Every structure is written in C-alpha cells, then in structure tokens.
C-alpha cells in the first residue's frame, strides 16, 4: 500500500521497500510518521522521509538489476538454441509485473510528496528513474516472449517433420504387408514369409534413401 494521510499536522506515509530473495519478491511494509518538515516524530531507522523514499527507489533499482541479469541469461539461452525452462520465462514475467506495480505506485507517491515539500526533487527523480527502468524491462520481456514462442514453434515444426518422415518411410511396408495379409496364394513369394520380410525391408530401405535425398 502506498498512501499518505494527515492528522493534526502529522503525516502518515505508507510504502514498501522491495527486494528479491530466492527468486521471489520480498516486500517490507514501512509506515513513517513525519512532521511538516519531513522529520520522523517517532523512532525510525530513517532520519527523514526523503531518506526513506530514496531507499525504496534504490531498492527497486537494485531489484531491476537482478531481473535484467536473469533476462540476459534467458535470452542467451534462447539465442544459442539452448534448452530454456519455460518456468524461468514465466517467473521473470511475474517479477517484472510485480516490480512494475511497485514502481508506478512509488513514483506517484514521490510526486505527491514532492509537491507537498516533504521530499527533494532528486529523490523524486530517483523514483522516476526506477519506474522508467522497469518500463524498459517490460518491453524487453515482450521481445523475450516473442523469441521464446518462436523457439517453441520451431521445436513443434521439427517434431512434425520427423513424424511426417517416419510415416512416409513406413508407407511401403504398410502397403506390402496389407497386400500379403489378404492370404492370396497366387501372389509372388506368398509361400515364403522370409522372402516377404526381405522384400519389405528392401523396399523400405530404398524408399527411405529416396526420401533422404529429396
């Protein structure tokens, strides 16, 4: 929750400091009560509201660096035709969308606090930079998904080609076995199963060689 409220000249500012831990987004909920100068009126690990908002923005930038490194790793695997776990792509998408929500909320909160004179312009610029950085990651994620879908489609095409080749090569064997399966005594080699199997093998091998050369 990102919000600011006022009561009796004291502002209550609520926001989250986000980090990545073990591949997931970790949120530290922070609530700071400050006076009109932005100084905490209660014991706090932050000396000012400006410092607290700046810490939240820097944490977002650090998380964005970690996600960008993961995107680079996935992209390298896709471009080198390596095997990429689809879950890694979906997890990266989850991380980016989660960070995107936090970055937009923090930017909006920082802009409001800047207008109220509770944070400096530099702190607002840091929050805006974090938001823009994560926007860029969203665009990179879109390109990565297209690359991943292209790899999946290519894998499907290769599988279909193999199945088609196997079916095509098996046609002569199916045809010959169907003819000799009718138990017609006047067919050539009808009395010699070994010869029929040899014929099937020879025709199939010749047909496979023909298909291979095409």
UniProtKB/TrEMBL annotation:
It comes from the Archaea. InterPro entries: CorA_TM1_TM2, MgTranspt_CorA/ZnTranspt_ZntB. GO terms for cellular component: plasma membrane. The keyword Membrane applies. It is found in: Cell membrane. The chain crosses the membrane at residues 163-183, 195-212. Keywords: Membrane, Transmembrane, Transmembrane helix. One of its GO terms (molecular function) is cobalt ion binding. It is a multi-pass membrane protein. This is Mg2+ and Co2+ transporter-like protein. It comes from Thermoproteus uzoniensis (strain 768-20). The lineage of its organism: Archaea, Thermoproteota, Thermoprotei, Thermoproteales, Thermoproteaceae.
